[in-house]
Amino acid sequence: MNYIFEGFKFKKKNTLIHSLDPRAKFAYLIMSFVSALLFTEPIPLVIIFLTSLPLVIIAKALKEWSRSMKSLSFFVTFIFILNLLSVTENRLNYAFSMVFRFLALTSAFSVFFLTTTPDDFMSALEKMGLPKEYTLMFTMSMRFVPTLARDLRIIVDAQKSRGLELEKGSLIKKVKNYVPILIPLIIYEIRRSIMIAEALEARAFGALKRTTSYTELKMGIKDYIFIFIVVFFFGMLIFLKIFGFLPEWMMIKLPEII
Amino acid sequence: MIELKNVSFTYPNGPRAVDNVSLSIGEGEFVALIGHSGAGKTTLAKLIVGLLKPETGWVKVSGLDTKTTPVSKIAEHVGYVFQNPDLMIFSATIYDEVAFALRNRGYREDEVKKRVVQALKEVDLGHKPLDTPPYMLSFGEKHRLAIASVLATEPDLLILDEPTTGLDYARCLKLMEICERLVRKGRSVLIITHDFGLIAEYAGRVLVMKKGRIIRDGATREVLRDVEFLEKEGFMPLQSTLLARKLGLRALTPRELASAILERNP
């Protein structure tokens, strides 16, 4: 469970993907996001999921990515069973598709956050015209992930040292066991966010509409090439889907189960 | 009661936090653990509670090996008060908060109530209605509530991780009195603190940690009077100790210094 966050935490590395402009990577994120939501067939969803693999390999982040993906097995099982039980036709096909839609989305986000610093992401959003308040909100939530993980660890330790056994009891009991973990976590994080807001205001945040930035983002040739490949690939997929030109092999359905 | 033998621990992708530590804490001991930030004090405490398992060596709590015993079992012998009470408190009332560890141990409700009331009294929260929401308390009160929730279990060893943070002097003294009372009952206290004044007044033994190792283990008076050692290790000796040395007197605390001066110049 602890490894989930590892695939969404920026790690500084000197690779092509890391050096790309955040807007180029954002284009990949948006295109794969839209495609994953558009498709319901398993094969295209697997393809969308697999597009992140070469990027992860080039970014030398395969270890973090695969650990994170493995840690998602609980959610994957949950989504699979829930979808298997919630539909009446093509159940296996539908459940399988939903699992790969989930994996495609999380994997695309993982690629983005593994290779983009919160500061670059903020600058990119500002360049795209978003107000400073919103970009800061975004980046602060990204920065919160490791802090949240650390606080969670401390709370689990604190409650364990008072005799809490998380894995004990029936399923309902197990869920209840998490109450002493979640309540302090939520309250503490709300308090922390209020403190951060006060600290920001005390340092004149919001006094000026436009502020200066230490780094200036500039799109280069490799960024345009990357965007072209991404838009071409996903654009083709979306075009084929919308206009009904998807090849037969992409529309293969998994057999029905009783 | 607590025994550590050649214990080492390294965090994943991190430095060696505890390095080949051997020590034992007997019944009725009041031990202070000092060291700079990052020296490994909290890690050592977590190893004693069983939250961390030693990489090498072993930790035994009342005969139980922490490597093979679940934390919930160790928690019956060791109480650990964390630095930040906000990360411990979750219940809707102060009663339920203190009762949490007791219920985890399977105590009957009448026994739970008796212990909760007693523990709240001990930390000066006895005047609060038992249904007070913990989140209505001040930071100092929450700290005392966290201490009460551990005290109620009457642990063999109470570990306090920087307990004086956010407490005023009077509350610190009150807390030390509670610890002393426990020690008189034959229980032990391990306090992690930077407050040399309190250590000098209350602790009988001092452990000094540096880079994961115990570099000094001795009687409080002997360690805190070793000004050369403290200064070499970057600690600030008590002003009263320094002044006593300048005056050629043997005193540790301000109280002792005053007495020594009065004795010399009646």
State the main characteristics.
heterodimer, A: 258 residues, mainly alpha, flat, B: 266 residues, alpha/beta, Rossmann fold, 3 domains, six-stranded mixed β-sheet, four-stranded antiparallel β-sheet
Structural write-up:
The complex is a heterodimer of chains A (258) and B (266). Chain A contains 11 helices and no strands. Chain A is an all-alpha fold and 258 residues long. Chain A folds into 2 domains: 1-116 and 220-258, no CATH class; 131-216, no CATH class. In chain A, helix 7 runs antiparallel to helix 8 (132-160). The radius of gyration of chain A is 21 Å and the shape is flat. Chain A starts with 15 loop residues before the first helix and ends in a 16-residue tail after the last helix. Chain B folds into 3 domains: 1-77 and 155-171 and 182-234, Rossmann fold (3-Layer(aba) Sandwich); 87-154, no CATH class; 236-266, no CATH class. Helices cover 39% and strands 23% of the residues of chain B. Chain B has helices at residues 41-49, 71-74, 94-104, 109-122, 139-151, 169-184, 196-202, 220-224, 227-232, 239-246, 254-264, and strands spanning 2-10, 16-25, 30-35, 56-61, 64-65, 78-81, 157-161, 188-192, 205-210, 213-219. Chain B has a 6-stranded mixed β-sheet with strand order 6-7-8-3-9-10, with helices on both faces. In chain B, a hairpin with a 5-residue loop joins strand 1 (2-10) and strand 2 (16-25). Chain B is globular, with a radius of gyration of 19 Å. Classes of the chains: A mainly alpha (258), B alpha/beta (266).
